[in-house]
Amino acid sequence: QVQLVESGGGLVQAGGSLRLSCAASGGTFSLYAMGWFRQAPGKERELVAAISRFGGKSDYVDSVKGRFTISRVNAQNTVYLQMNSLKPEDTAVYYCAARLEWRIDYNYWGQGTQVTVSS
What we know:
By secondary structure, this protein is mainly beta. The chain has strands spanning 3-7, 10-13, 18-25, 32-39, 46-51, 58-60, 68-73, 78-83, 92-100, 108-109, 113-118.
């Protein structure tokens, strides 16, 4: 059983930056592909960024390409989401999630951290 705890959310002005962190425990971190999801009020949850087990491959939703960067440090059991040039439409609760690489769906989730971008 993997436990995930996000941190780093907050209030920032448009154009600013935030770095989200997700600390994992209870499992062998390098076995899991990791993802950052977000959900805004009244909208469906979407996968923002994903990274493979050892960080060799990453993917992003089109709306954040060139602005967000996902990374991981397996020795520290941590995955990060660096968010630059933030826009009001990035406002959402951001969730960290994990899945064994052979699975399609993410089956471990953090509690979420709020990111609010003011205009």
